[in-house]
Amino acid sequence: MARRSESASAPPWLIAAMRLGVLALLLLLWALAADNVSRNIIPSPLETLEAAVRLWADGRLPGALGASLVTYLGGFVLAVAFALPLGIVMGAFGLLGRTIEIYVYALAATPRVAFIPLIILTLGLGIEAKLFVVFLGAVMPIIINTYAGVRQADPDLVEMARSVGASRSRIFKAIVLPGAVPYVLAGLRIGATIGLINTVVAELYTAVTGLGGLLALYGNTFRMAEYFVIVLTLAAIGVVVTEVLRLLELRLTRWSN
Amino acid sequence: MSPSPPVPDAGDTSTSRGRGIRFAGVSKAFIAGNGARTSAVREVDLEIAEQQFVALIGPSGCGKSTLLRLADGLLEPDTGRIAIGDAPPRPGPAIGMVFQNFRLIPWRSVRDNVGFALEGRGLDGTELKQRVQAQLEQVGLAGWDDHYPAQLSGGMRQRVALARALIGRPGVLLMDEPFASLDAQTRELMQDDLLALWERQRPTVLFVTHSVDEALLLADRVIVMGGGAVLEDLPIHLPRPRRSTDARRAAEYSQLREHLWSRIRDLVLADPASAFFGRHVQADGEGG
Question: How far apart are CA B1 and CA B273, in angstroms?
């Protein structure tokens, strides 16, 4: 919805130009900060770029990136596969939904990091534990949003569908589920964000691997240029994933132009 | 669900012969969240002849929309019987329903919105498409098949909704303030189009409106409702064919209009809870 007014108020080239301008400004501020704060704390953009090239060439960055992506995307896909059907079923069967929603909300309100010791005890320190930490972070917003989307089906459209004699299952397929799509997409976006956070958390608290592992390594040894490379890589993953989800949303809501 | 009517020709957009509607001792109450029971419709006896155009008018909350939903089969009466032809009403494309707020499915194209009324009834895709196209042509929207509701004006949206209501060739057309959210010019155009359509095909029409002028322009018979009951049943003998531009010139028109207006004003003043005309009348210094 916000996108529509954004594109209506300014031409795309202007937005792109403005964004590039802000990027240049940020780089400038970064360079200034690097010049004025001790080099050991804030590396210059150039030093960071050199570190990135180095880390990529010696294979450490690709390796860590691959490991993190497996954890992240694996846990996220598991979360979607679990949360979508559960949210839909909760929304479709009101009694079931009302019965378990309170537990879902309670679990969603608990800091999931609190479960990490328990997860390590039951699943160990390997990929299973990492996947589960990501899963646990991403699953709640997807369940809650899917559930809300299904429950908030437009009663006017449902009545219209009833008046043309549509069966319950047809109403569910043609009205309720498509109507929940924007909610589901919002849930996916929140879940993807929390999933990325939990990827790093998992890599810090279980067997230290991936980008989270490098983050700890370079942070603890004050290799700040390398450390910045890892932070920027994580930011890039976040941007790419949310952008993909945004494109998906644009595609699925073309009708609202 | 209900069997679809035989389909001789996909391009044929005629409605079935208008069927009579009968309400016999029909009452319907709703239980509010606080447990209070409100009567929406009380002891309504009404006989609507085949192919008649009937307007239901009355203040907000008088039960006219409930009566429409009872006639569609969306609601079951608590007591009494309703019949369309000789069978109790059952929701389906054989009874067309048009709502004030269009109720188009926003993520479906115009074609798929109109076709929605006949989906799952064993029509093959080509046939459905042909029928939709013919129906869109009839309501003046030929070529708009692939557009989405968001790309249409209010008047066009209501034409799509009308096409959806008509595509099942209904013998009964139920309209719940269908033109109330359109601008004045569009409303007049739609009224004329509806009149032309009705004159050609003569479905039985039950038309809920707040507007005395609209009721007088369109209907053979105006039924005034208040407090869930039928208060007056007024035949309208204005000559047909009528159109919005000339109907008001008839001498009888202004008398009927005056009569209906005073009737509705009294109803509103008698019911302080009604918010529809109340404030307006009081501002005129006639408030009770």
Answer: 41
The region of weakest confidence among A111-115, A170-174, B273-277 is B273-277
Nearest to A157 among B103, B109, B120 (CB): B103
Backbone φ and ψ for B222, nearest 5 degrees, come out as -115, 125
- Select the residue of A159, A175, A255 nearest B74 (Cβ to Cβ): A159
Which residues of chain A are within 8 Å of residue B90 when distances are taken between CB atoms?
Answer: 165
Nearest residue in chain B measured CA to CA from A161: B117
Nearest to A140 by CA among A71, A204, A192: A192
Q: Is A158 on the interface with B (CB under 8 A)?
A: no
Interchain contact A78–B (C-beta under 8 A): no
Question: How many helices (H) and strands (E) in chain A?
Answer: 12, 0
* Best CA proximity match to A253, nearest among A2, A80, A11: A2
Does position B282 have pLDDT exceeding 70, yes or no?
Answer: no
SS3 assignment for A173-225? HHHHHHHHHHHHHHHHHHHHHHHHHHHHHHHHHCCCCHHHHHHHHHHHCCCHH
Residue in chain A nearest B71 by alpha carbon:
A163
Residue whose tokens read 């929207």: B141
- How far apart CA B94 and CA B72 sit, in angstroms, is 10
Report the distance separating Cα B50 and Cα B172, nearest Å. 9
What chain A holds in terms of domains, given with CATH numbers, is 52-256 (1.10.3720.10)
With CA atoms as reference, report the closest residue to B106 among B140, B174, B152: B152
* Region B64-89 average pLDDT: 95
Q: Which domains does chain B have, with CATH numbers?
A: 21-94+171-270 (3.40.50.300), 105-169 (no CATH)
Chain A hits for B150, CB-CB cut-off 8 Å, are 255-257
8 Å CB contact of B116 and A164: yes
The least confident of A67-71, A235-239, B39-43 is B39-43
Q: Is B93 on the interface with A (CB under 8 A)?
A: yes
Structure ipTM: 0.87
- Best of A157, A164, A173 to disrupt the B interface (most B CBs within 10 Å) is A164
A167-183: pLDDT as tens digits: 999 999 999 999 999 99
- What is the dihedral sign for C-alpha A236, A239, A242, A243? negative
The pLDDT score that the predictor gives to residue B245 is 76
